[in-house]
Known about the structure:
Layout: E1 10-11, H1 14-17, E2 25-29, E3 35-42, H2 74-78, E4 84-89, E5 93-94, H3 104-115, H4 117-120, E6 124-127, H5 134-139, E7 145-150, H6 153-165, H7 167-171, E8 176-181, H8 201-210, E9 211-217, H9 223-239, E10 244-251, E11 255-257, E12 262-264, H10 266-279, E13 286-293, E14 309-318, H11 326-329
Parallel strand pairs: 6-7, 6-9, 7-8, 9-10
Antiparallel strand pairs: 1-5, 2-3, 3-4, 10-14, 11-12, 13-14
Amino acid sequence: MDEITFKSDTVLSDVHLHTPNQRHLMVRLSGVGQPVFLSQFKLLWNQASQTDSGAEGGNHRAHPAEEEDDVLGDKAQESSPYDVIKIEHTMATPLEDVGKQVWRGALLLADYILSQRDLFRGRTVLELGAGTGLASILAATVAQTVYCTDVGADLLAMCQRNIALNSHLTATGGGVIKVKELDWLKDDLCTDPEVPFSWSEEDISDLYGHTTILLAAEVFYDDDLTDALFKTLCRLAHKLKNASTAILSVEKRLNFTLRHLDVTCEAYDHFRSCLRRLEGLTGGRLRFAVEPVDVSFPQLLVYERIQQLELWKVFVEPVTEPVVSADTAS
């Protein structure tokens, strides 16, 4: 591949844009005719104790000696298979297929998982909008079961291939990854056995009976989808038997808009407003508490941890006493 080219109606992740062209290995065409590339992301297991906060400058690297253009480079190819995670992905996709690319927010979430392994150990985890499956795969290195969910048979098949490519990483911990369809625009899970990646009754029972951690990364780029994601979170929270924590990764993207004639962060602002509404819900049997996560934890994947990357936690707990809203109290 000599040059990266894309049309005006396509989107290209910075992770791929800033990687030299010779680092991209095209391996096949997807089911819808898109070129699929294989990338290797280095895992810096031995850097767990090192951290370079970079809080002021926005750059946060685990290993300053590593050059950024070697993220997928020759050194990764020479490493032990346990030192890389292999991900198939596409580039320069239409907006509806952005899940087939690798995004910085997914790398940040993966870093958090690797730095907080005890939090995930032995748990049942559900990832919403898993995309290429990067975070789900690394969660399965310590979790008992990971439900890796998204929509679209082609994307879910890509997830399945990435899981197979990295089976050696999950085998040691015994974690199981189940790729399933979960459409935020539908109230119910698909149980039709004729539909690829549908749910069995056994899986649904396990999901609702044991899930305690939910994940979502870089899925807050469209207001309608963001609304659907938060509705799905609420719906799932009311069906889960245990208290749960949702960990959300987002990049605050600055865009110049003609409507405002200024640089704005509309998608991010909408995401934050959804968090505030969720925390303000009263009168139900669940309480939602929201807090930001300090992102100065060690960086175990090589990428640019920019200042605009954020993690948020949503704690979901049962209400032990009736919650009276301010309006009712007055």
